[in-house]
Amino acid sequence: MITRKKIIVYLGILSLSIVYTACIGPSAIKRSENKSVPASYNGGKDSINTATIKWKTFFKDQYLIALIDTALKNNQELNIIMQEINIAKNDVRAKKGAYMPNLEVGLEASLDKSSRYTITGANEEATDIVVGQKNPSPLSNYVLGANISWEIDIWKKLRNAKKAAVFKYLSSIDGKNFMLTHLVAEISNSYYELLALDNQLEILKQNIELYQNSLEIVKLEKSAARVTELAVRRFEAEVLKNQSRQFYIEQQITVTENRLNYLMGRFPQTITRNSKSFIDLPIDTIHSGIPSQLLDNRPDIKRAERELIAAKLEVKSAKAEFYPALKITAGAGYSAFNPKYIIETPLSLIYNVAGNLVAPLINRNVIKANYYSASSKQVQAMYNYERTILNAHIEVVNQLSNINNLKKSYDLKTKQIQALTESIDISNTLFKSARADYMEVLLTQRDALESRFELIETKKQQMNAMVNIFEALGGGWR
Questions:
Q1: I need a surface site. Which of 227, 275, 409, 419 has the fewest CB within 10 A?
Q2: d(CA 202, CA 246)
């Protein structure tokens, strides 16, 4: 014979087995992330880092600073990211509320008509609520009360979810900072491209004038029967070619101006700038510091790191779904079939309290799927973190090498232009004295033009490299 004591023992054993089974979750995928980076970029140990300089100090051109200021206020993409930060912040608030008690206050009114031939209907017919009066039918009911429910966060499931949301919020701020560095760099590079185009256009106009002067000389030489019509036509073709090229550069200037206007969130208008001193702009000394500083200076690395921490917390939160959940519910208030009786105490007083401990036992596929997905996302976040560090280091090394090689190239091109400029005067003098062919004059002028164009292009690349290394080191968001 099964006694009451045995039943209690059996139920206790069954409950313990349920809890034990529920607590056994699948094993997590574990992998230790490696934050180690090389000790230096090129053997240097100088810890001074240009990235710590504010962008308003790094850039000296007041026109450029004004453009960046405008973009930081009006750029649509940046404003979209600001709203993403607000969304992440609200998600933190929602996750925080999940592990706090939930209190609801309300008023309920209902009307019920039970069949006479049911237990409820028969009991209502047989029982007088008020002596000497028949029960009302249908029977109304009014409830005024409050209910509270609270899941006790034993396994930190809800708190880990909230912490994960916090780190996602912080990563969204890092994403905004990364956008700032990119926006500052993009505006600066476009601005220097615009200055370079202005200088190329000015050089082209000077060369068109030079070609036209040479054309007049060739015409005079033809009238003196010293050259043929072929020489005249070749110089005319060169003038027309460069005049056509002028419109191509002017179109590039328009496109570059409008790219800057777009980044600043405004309709097309002229960009105020000073192009005359472009070729003399100084190339500042860049202090790269040491690679480990990238972990603090680069917003994309900090974002990837916080996303990795959030992914770890989400794994813990998903694993806690396998464990029993303790929930407490309680309520208190007043209930009566007539509103005039609703606040009579204690006759209309109602209250309840309950606690339950439940755990998934048989069908746990949904929980397993969520847990495995969280684990895979954690591994993804880890690879993304490692990839971001590697990419940052390579970007810095590439730009440091680029700056060094561009300096050497610029110095050689400067010497090339000096030699070609002198050769133009020499060729013109020789041509006038019939000691040089007209093709030598034409080719010398053409080479000089191309070399001056290349010098401007190299100068632009130098300025772009300076901006890019500033961005690669993690500067521009301060």
A1: 419
A2: 9
Collapsing DSSP to helix, strand or coil, 2 comes out as: coil
Residue entry with tokens 């500067």 = 475
Strand residues in 271-419 grouped as ranges (E): 325-336, 349-358
Amino acid type, 387? R
102-152+325-358 placed in CATH 2.20.200.10 = yes
- What token pair was written down for 321? 């779904």
Mean pLDDT (the chain, rounded) = 84
Going by C-alpha positions, the residue among 100, 55, 474, 26 that lies closest to residue 292 is: 474
Token duo for residue 297: 């200076």
Q: How confident is the model at residue 71 (pLDDT cuts 50, 70, 90)?
A: very high
Q: Are 431 and 215 in contact (CB under 8 A)?
A: no
Tokens of 112: 């019920």
pLDDT digits (tens, 9 = 90+) for 406-462: 999 999 988 988 887 777 767 766 666 666 665 666 677 777 778 888 999 999 999
Mean of the pLDDT values across residues 147-158? 87
Q: Percent of the chain scored above 70 by pLDDT?
A: 85
CATH 3.30.70.100 fits 26-99+155-318+363-472, yes or no: no
